[in-house]
Structures are given as structure tokens and as C-alpha cells.
Amino acid sequence: MKKDILLFDLDGTLAHTLPQLAIAASKVAQKMGYFVPSVEEIATYVGNGANMLLARTLRHSIDAKIEDIDESVLKEAREHFNSFYLQGLGSDYSIYPHVKEGLVYFKELGIKMAVITNKPQLFAVPLLEHMQVYELFDYVLGGEVLDKKKPDPYPLIYVLEKLGGSVDAALMVGDSVNDIKAGQNCNMDTVGFSYGYNMGCDIRECNPTYAFDSFSQLIELIDSMYTK
Question: What is the pLDDT of residues 118-177, one digit of tens each?
Fold first, then answer.
């Protein structure tokens, strides 16, 4: 079925942003007098929102939970993180190959596009602006706007309602189990990219409808829907 709505994850899907996330989290640990994990180690903590990233960083453990950190400590850590991360949003990232050309092409086809990310709205919008792709999207939903995040299907349903689309005509595009499960939980077709951040797991293990190794393969898929 032809897809007229594309829902994209951001980190690990459209851009390689792990360095800026890890640098900001490491600065928080240093500022607060905690052990500072390596940037490479902190990179494995990404994928479940800023507070979870901070909890894992401060506890120096992938198995840490938000509840493991005292509320006042987490609040202070988040304030520092917001400041450090906002300062670094314009650097230490790269857009993946073929993303810009693909988004422009999808826009030319008349496809509605949205970003649904667990990254807070505070960061998502300016990052997309730095990437010079913000204007291509019809909607951007950050992870703290609603009380539910991916893999819960509600953010996807919420955005579909905003765009006036249906599940059957939409495609959830992401790089992690959270993205694929969110799509599957509302019976939506999914695209999983192998190059992103899935905690070291093969995205194919999540059984996406389509598993791709390059954004160019998504361009080819959409092109086949509209030209054949």
C-alpha cells in the first residue's frame, strides 16, 4: 500500500548525535563529582530519554533505573544536562548519508512527515533547525510532550490524528526496538535501520516490516510505491 505519512525517529535514524549526548552527560557527571564514564560507554546508555541517560551515567550502569537516583539529585543533573546539551546542539553531530535528499524527495511527492522522538522537545526542534531540515516536517513531537513515550503506540496515534492520517497509510521509520515496537503496537508497518542505536542488537531481531542498511533503501522503497 502506498504510504502518504512517514513518521521518523531522530537520533540514530536521521542523524548521528551520540557524541553530543555523551559529551553533555559526561559533563554532568564531572560537574556533580561522579565517576565520569567514557563517551563510548555513555553512548550505550542512550535510547530511553534524557532522564534515563542521566540515571545510567550517574550510576555507571546500563541497568540503572530512574528510581535509583534521588529526585533532587536527578533534578540537578537534568538542569545541568539541559544547559550543556543546548550549548552543544550545533556541533558534534552528522546527518546520515542520503537523509536530506530523501526528505526533500518525500516532500516533493506530497508525503506528510513527522518526527516522533524520545528526545525532549527542548532539544529536538533546535537540532532539526541546525540540521536545516525542520521546515520539511509537518509535525515534531518530543518525548516529554505526552505522558507516554515509544514503545507505547500513543505518540504515533497522537501524531496521526494531528496529520489526519491512518495507520494503514503510515510508516514508522527508526533504528531501535522502541521505534519498531511502537509501530507494531498500533499495527503500523515499520522500517528498521541497522546503522543506528539499538544497544548493540541487530534491528532485524525486532522483525520490522523492512530492514535497511542505508537511508537510500528507504528512498527506493517509497519511489517504488509512487512510480510503479
Answer: 888 989 999 999 999 999 999 999 988 999 999 999 999 999 999 999 999 999 999 999
Residue 213 among the catalytic residues: no
Q: How far is CA 16 from CA 12, 95, 131, in A?
A: 5, 6, 11
Tell me if 19 sits within 8 A of 93, measured CB to CB: yes
Fold of 5-16+93-227: Rossmann fold (3.40.50)
User: Would you kindly state where each structural domain of the chain is located, as residue ranges?
Assistant: 5-16+93-227, 18-88
CB 193 within 8 A of CB 210: no
Look at the pTM and tell me if it is higher than 0.85. yes
- pLDDT tens track for 48-70: 778 999 999 999 999 999 999 99
Pick the catalytic residue: 9, 175, 179, 189? Answer: 9
25, 81 contact by CB (below 8 A): yes
Distance from C-alpha of 168 to C-alpha of 26, rounded to nearest angstrom: 42
Can you give 128-161 as a three-state secondary structure string?
HHHCCCHHHCCEEECCCCCCCCCCCCHHHHHHHH
Smallest CA-to-CA distance from 208 within 11, 13, 10 is with 13
